[in-house]
Amino acid sequence: MLPLNNTDIVTGVRNRDKHVFEIIFNQFSPSMFSIALRYLRDHDEAQDIVQDVFMNLWRTADNLDERAPIQHYLARATVNTCLNRIKKAQRQQQYSREQQLTAEPTVEHLLLEHKELEAQYHSILEKLPEQCRRVFEMSRFKGLSPAEIAQQLNISINTVYTHLTTALKKIRLGLLNQQ
User: Fold this and answer.
1) Mind listing the pLDDT tens digit for each residue in 67-81?
2) The RNA polymerase sigma-70 region domain covers which part of the protein (predicted)?
3) What is the CATH number of domain 6-103?
4) Nearest alpha carbon to residue 14 among 71, 61, 69, 56
């Protein structure tokens, strides 16, 4: 068959002539593949782009301008499809990075938060009145019961409970105010 001119190609494409599609696919797909490969540097992706461009040509055949050479249309469509694919991949990578940053804190971040919280905790403990701090430390750090603390410090068990309540309240408020 003789080579088709641009008008014959556009008419054939608009009429969804499979023979014309086969001719232009065989004629132009290698150059389209080269363009896509230059942009994407991935053999399979480049083949997908060529297929996508021809599928889009089939779907939008009625919109073809017969004055524009088909090879220019196919080249431009290939470049645009490649650029869209690259932009989409970049958006997906950016989204993944953002998700990783917000989804789960790193071990280093958690350790830093723990150290800051511990420093705040000890700072609040140091500001407690002496007897209150001593009762709290005996209860929490030495594991003594309120009765044992009362006996060792020679104070009533109710005083031990009052000191513990006061200490816990001040620690809780201190940590909340620092956040």
Assistant:
1) 888 999 999 999 999
2) 25-91
3) 1.10.1740.10
4) 61
